[in-house]
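Subject: sequence -> structure tokens, single chain

Hey, anyone have a minute? Need the predicted structure for the following. Not urgent.
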Amino acid sequence: MATRTKEAKKGKLVIVESPAKAGTIKKYLGKDYKIMASMGHLIDLPKSQLGIDTENNFEPKYITIRGKAELVNSLKKEAKLSEKVYLATDPDREGEAISWHLAHVLDIGENEKCRITFNEITKTAVTSAIKTPRKINIDLVDAQQARRILDRIVGYKISPILWKKVKKGLSAGRVQSVATRLICDRENEINDFIEEEYWTIDLHLIKDKKSFVAKFYGKGDKKQDLKTKADTDKILSALEGASFTVTDVKESVKQKSPAPPFTTSTLQQEAARKLGFTTKRTMQAAQQLYEGVNISGKGLVGLITYMRTDSLRISTEFQFVARNYIEKTFGKEYITSSPRIYKTKKDAQDAHEAIRPTSLDLSPAKIKDNLSADQFKLYKLVWERFLSSQMSNVVYDSVSATIEANSYTFKANGSTVKFDGFTTLYTEGVDQKEETEKKLPPLSVGDVPKFKDLKAEQKFTQPPSRYTEASLIKALEEKGIGRPSTYSPTITTIIARGYVLREKKMLKPTELGMIITDIMKEHFPEIVDVTFTAAMEDQLDIIADGDIDWHTVIDDFYKPFEKTVKNAEDAIGNVELKDEVSDVVCDKCGRLMVYKHGRFGKFLACPGFPECRNAKPIIKKLDVLCPKCGNAVIEKKTKTGKVFYGCENYPECDFTSWDKPLEEKCPDCGGMMFQRTGRFKGKYCVDCQAKKELEKKTKKESKKTTKK
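Reply:
Had a minute. Here:
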């Protein structure tokens, strides 16, 4: 019997996490390998209970995830028939834990060299990994297990208190509660902000028929802030009829280095700024690009390296490839004298490289037709950011001029690009609009430019801005909260729970979010303490390095936390949430409907729930009439939350538009104008545009006929 079993074993089994990844790897390994997907986790803590034995050294009670039993049996069956099993889950702590669970399910010994990892899904990386399998890294598994247990304890101990004291369906989390607190604290800063008046004076001058602006600096070398109109008028009066003389000119050459290649955090930030992507949308597209996309003539190809990383390291070999590509494409002056080395933060997990393309032969333009719109946009972003990170600095000629009159000083700054360097390919996005310097006319000490105007303007200090997804991720990363893999699900969760709304790309806390945060700050201060949460991340890193036992970390956390929970249960009173009442009458029971918050924003619901379950979207009418039937045009949303516009008389009238219809009419033909957003933003008239396209088409056809 034993001989027959041995003879039956043939071929090798490779287990990955997703079918897409399986398809990409299969073509590199050949017919002797069978590739199967675990479809993510197979084993996890039960949903119906805590699942952690707090009386027995915090041992987790793992179970097979509901609906995965059949897959587990298939994997077991295939493993028994295979001479060797390789576990090729993702190259991070989460992937290590999945491999560890798989090893237990498939009865693979702890000393068996079954674990393979690759930072990119290319033939070289995959075949190299197969040749050098290793044992499962139990330290990485313990770090992930500790995170999972910590999150489970916090969530399952605090959430029931919130259900009981506030309302059902709420949740608290080790990272999500801190993220919500940051957003709420920022809102409090905005509400408490007291604006202060200040003034600016711009001096408009002309030299060699070119006008330029100098900004008020102060008196002599001393800077002066203008707080009132009286202060400003005094200066304007003193400068009336004065001649302005250039007293100092400083010329210098400045350089600016490119931004480093992407980490998970910076990719999410830049995709939010430049593409308007949510973190979830970014990570979905990145996952697809990593696992493999069908490319004409090549089959499934992994296009970028692993997208969950906080390392800035780039392999020496690929840097050499990039430098050759840059020199060949842009010229020798666009490469640096030696390869750029970017310094990774000391607490970063440096297991893999920064995010980069896997091959420079597959440029975004070349494979655009094989990619979805999101895949193309993100791939182009990764491609250009990486390549630019290896290019020369941009060089500026900078000029700073001091201009004086009656002992008052003005400063004028200008710059021109001497060498465009990396900006020929890519410029990093910014959260707030930056003031760009303009070119000054040639200026010399003693010059007296022609006076044009003095403009004084009253201004007021502005409160801090609300967080966007990009700026929140940046704040979380800077404060050491969470890890690259946690940013996207954290933001998704706090929006889904109704703690935060996304309004015009800004994250605004709801009343519920503010109430929950206040409860957490008062009764669970450590859970929402930024420093404490960051220190816990450091502890998880120490576990991953093998320098501390995970049981010790959990035990040190749990003892004081258990007391805090008991005290909170007694101390927290019942909280009454009042819904905002609308003027819309429920058409089923006659009550005035109230505003509720869902994952896609506000909606109307009947306060008589559960007796009356009536709910409806909030209809936003535009001051525009439908061009087809004359009824009102309203704002609508798709199932994914994307805004579009349509006739309120749907389905009788089928008018819809992605672009916003405008009240103003076309000045040329009187037709309806639309506002286009995005890359080609601007106003346009449908009728005139159609006419131009028709004329263009007619001309082309006419030329073809003439040639014949």
